[in-house]
Amino acid sequence: MTETFYDVLRRQGITRRSFLKFCSLTATSLGLGSAAAPRIAHALETKPRTPVLWLHGLECTCCSESFIRSAHPLTKDVVLSMLSLDYDDTLMAAAGHQAEAIIEEVKKKYKGQYIVAVEGNPPLNEDGMFCIQGGRPFIDKLKETCADAKAIISWGSCASYGCVQAAKPNPTRATPVHKVISGKPIINVPGCPPIAEVMTGVVTYMLTFDRVPELDRQGRPKMFYGQRIHDKCYRRGHFDAGQFAEAWDDEGARKGYCLYKMGCKGPTTYNACSSMRWNGGVSWPVQSGHGCIGCSEDGFWDKGSFYDRVTDIKQFGVESNADKVGGTVAAVTGAAIAAHAAVTALARARSKNETNGE
Amino acid sequence: MLSQQDMLEAERHGRQVRSIYVYEAPVRLWHWINAAAMVVLAVTGYFIGLPPPSVPGEAVDNFLLGYIRFAHFAAGYVFAIGLLARVYWACVGNHHARQIFMLPVTNRAWWSEVLFELRWYLFLEKHPKKYVGHNPMAQLMMFFFFTLLAFGMVITGFALYSEGAGQGSWSDTLFGWVLPLLGGSMQTHSWHRLGMWIMMSFVLVHVYAAIREDIMSRQSLISTMVSGWRMFKD
Question: Among A185, B104, B162, B233, whose CB has the most other CB atoms within 10 angstroms?
């Protein structure tokens, strides 16, 4: 049986007396009156923590690496106190058949109650043979596990969009989770990796309010992906002023000018880096002097260079950017017009001569 | 059917009165406001993608890119509202006002006129025809390289504008869906910029053809967009 919140609190050395005090205080501060205190206590004593099954498909584990570095809340609190992380092949002690048996157990016991967190994505080519776990394709495991889930969290750009393994030509046909699973709420948390606090923040929200956070058109939580890096960037003042670093070692770069001309993808990337930063708020890419590469955007590997803004469009077969294609069109048009005008003038002069000769 | 009407009108009037009222005042006003907006949009848009060299001094004393973007957004509004007003006028104005919004594609005679114009521009015809409104070739060009493209630019433009305006803004509600459809914000920027180049190429052709026809086909074109009257010189 999964521990309740009460069990966890007792295990961490909190007395029953303190626990009941906490319930009374919570009831009072929420304005619920004294009658609510026992009900809160009852809920915390009986409500099991939400079980989470964390699956790993085609991925590099950078999402897990990020997740375990969360500072607010600490990952240990999330994993050990807030949720019941029942399965995670990377972190768990169990292995082999014992580990796989847990999935079956949770599926039966908490049908429709558990959350599946997916890191990485399933490859579909060759019947899914590019990612085998426990002797069978990951796609099968993913579909079975998600069948009875309450909600699915797609960790990182792999699960949300496909990321590097889905970059052209995508030999394994790596496919984002929302394209193979339907009928369940899916929360996309893109980024390569996502910010640690964004990951724990999404989990905390779902456990506290027992619902999926408000999502945008692409299934991302609005609270973290509602604005662009650019909108909250501390170098935005230099952008608006028209002050840019033009080279990595020029005066502008030293003065901390905007990195737009160095190809910063901040204006086209939705993420919380510029407000939440990384590693407990120590720094983030732009603060370190390198532009954003747009790692939380769909297909960012295939969107041209990381180091220019007017970048390549690949729909033309040949890689070329709007200025090259458009500039060529305009130049050819101009040349054609000049030639046409010349021929017109010649033809006109000749016809005039003919008229005069008559 | 428009072209046939035009032809009849032109032939009948051409000999008799030598000038016809073609473009009503709202169409002419829109044309020049629209032209000005497009110049501002193209220049500022170019610099938004590739900003001018850094300005010296403190950031607080400068707002160069801010002003460039402001001008772009303001001109964008003028362009978009103008386009809507023009659509309205196409509904209530004379039949020339509808030309750039509808092609008589089922009309065989119209297509043969298009071919004739093509031959004229390729120097295969000796004598031009006269038209009261746009010639069929011009109408075809207008429809694809101005009307459709203009709507495309307004839609992608306001989709990009919604990124700054934020979620829940009117531009996000109406046009936010365009961004994921085109493969993200960066791709939308690229297509919007490419649209600018195509529009500018159209402007080149448009201005050249207007000047050329004004001289070659013995009818007024440029002054018609000022006065509204099409003059026939012979």
Answer: B162
The stretch A296-310 carries a mean pLDDT of: 89
CA atoms of B202 and A328, how far apart (whole Å): 13
Domain count, chain B: 1
A123: contact with B, CB 8 A cutoff:
no
State how far residue A294 is from chain B, nearest Cα, in angstroms: 9
Range of the domain at A39: 1-48
Query: Contact, B128 vs B120, CB < 8 A?
Result: yes
**Which domain CATH number covers B57?**
1.20.950.20
Measured between CA atoms, the residue of chain B closest to residue A333 is B201
Judged by a CB distance cut-off of 8 A, whether residue A240 touches chain B is yes
Residue A285 confidence (pLDDT) above 70: yes
A237 touches chain B (CB under 8 A): yes
Same domain, A145 and A158: yes
| A262 membership: H or E segment, kind and range | none
- Contacting residues of B for A343, CB less than 8 Å apart: 123
Show which of A225, A242, A264 is a domain's final residue.
A225
Q: Residue B118 above 80 pLDDT?
A: yes
pLDDT tens digits, residue range B174-210? 999 999 999 889 999 999 999 999 999 999 999 998 9
A269 touches chain B (CB under 8 A): yes
